[in-house]
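Model it.
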Amino acid sequence: MINNVVLTGRLTADPELKYTANEGHSVCNFTLAVDRIGSDETDFIRCVAWRKTAELVAEYLKKGSQAGVVGRLQIRNYEDKDGNKRTAAEVVCSQVQFLGGKNSE
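Modeled.
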């Protein structure tokens, strides 16, 4: 089976760095705006990076930064604060490439 995702896009907001309660591992959530080829439409794809990658993303990327992501698609179910069942789709990053130079907008 193959579950591999490769994306290039821009961050829609500053990344959010948090730490897990049990183990204290760093986790960073961010959303990439990815243009569809041959279309004027854009997909907004939620991404999650763990440990050192999470820390680097939080330190060096910000809203509008261009990034390349390699990872796997994960679908998870959870209950929201009101007890409603929800489903979330996200890319769990194995690699994040910072694109653009230091001074690029």
